[in-house]
Amino acid sequence: MKNTVSGNFPAAARIGIGGPVGSGKTALIERLIPALEGRGIGVAVVTNDLVTREDAERLKASGLINPNKVRAVETGACPHTAIREDPTLNIQAADELVNLFPRTGIVIIESGGDNLASTFSLDLVDYWLFVIDAAGGDDIPRKKGPGIVRSDLLVINKTDLAPYVGSDLEQMKVDAIEVRGDRPIVLTNCASGDGIEAIIDHLSQSVLFDA
Amino acid sequence: MSKTPSILPALQHSDSFFPSGAVSFSWGMETLVTESHVPDAEAVEKFIRAQLTERWASFDRSIISAAFVASKDLVDLRKLDSIVECQTLSHEMRDGSHRCGLAMLRVHEELGTPLAKEYRGCVTRSEACGNLAVMQGFLWANSDVAKNEIWALSAHTLCVGILGAAMRLGCIGHVHSQRILAALHHTIEGLIQKPPLPLERLHAFTPVSEIAMMRHETIDSRLFAN
Ligand SMILES: Nc1nc2c(ncn2[C@@H]2O[C@H](COP(=O)(O)OP(=O)(O)O)[C@@H](O)[C@H]2O)c(=O)[nH]1
Ligand SMILES: [Mg+2]
Question: Per CATH, the architecture of A5-206 is what?
């Protein structure tokens, strides 16, 4: 793992969450925080809000997390650059959080919103999720793109909305498996919490070895 | 035996491909564009020229040179760092200088640049701030950039950083930004003809950008960190 911290605590895992604006990245984080804390894993969050500090403020005000464990990083209108070519300020924010809160087990970095071609630098994160949603259309997995194909975990969110927009969830799943091979996929409903435990299980196996 | 001088290290370190955090900073430009004080390409050029002549030439350049010379001496580097700290007024300007400097420092630490790890230790222990101009002279010296190239490198990265911000703010186009950059070459060449000021004569006067950065602190809608 990336970071060694002074003291006797294991280095925190760094998890990236990418995906189009509105797909439910922040909603997913709001679900992951209590689920991870429930398993005794301390969480800190770095957000890359595009224009405002909305996501950071929303998390700070959520009551789910100590507001000091949330940092907003401005990306100068370059959300992809900030997670890929030049993630230095995100790394800096994650380092600072881990230094301030040495018991942090996981730092979640939320991207500012991506198109399907975005990826995370492996010098920034140990593991990354890409969140799409059923309401965005069931053809998205077929459109491929590195986010869909190469992410460590693909999350298809807003399953509850599929019937309202005529999205065929089964087809989305089949298409996603077709382009991703063995890489895992989880269907979630962040409004109800369905699927969150499955994500935690994947994180536990892949990066939270001691969880 | 010294290595053959090469332009390649200078190209590597002046390229916006080098991860430096610079895309997140507008150095006052965001406020000035948002508030219509910098409405067009002409105003952008004027703004950058003022940064070059009124701050970079009379302040940063001397610090960069001194840090280049002191590149093996952590005590001297820390003294330079505190000079920059004491002479930088606005909070977001200092913060931008720290964050860019630290971003550079951490990448250099991972690249194995001599003394980068040690200096980052000083910053982590709050013994130094890691101001950008100091980090440039120090880390470029320890990355085999030739001394006669550091000024052009620093001036170039300053221009490109602000031009990129102006472009992303919708103020100039991609061709115009290259025209401005070319026009600024003449200014830079002129400035680096003269020897840098001695440390006791450093000065900077860029009130427009500094006040813009102060105003930026409380702006809700922000693409940039300053
Ligand atoms: N019905 C439903 N709404 C959701 C779900 N996940 C997120 N949302 C809503 O979708 C909107 C965008 O979510 P947000 O987390 O802000 O998306 P982000 O831009 O990817 O961070 C918000 O209004 C959420 O409440 C879901 O699974 N089901
Ligand atoms: Mg969000």
Answer: 3-Layer(aba) Sandwich (3.40)
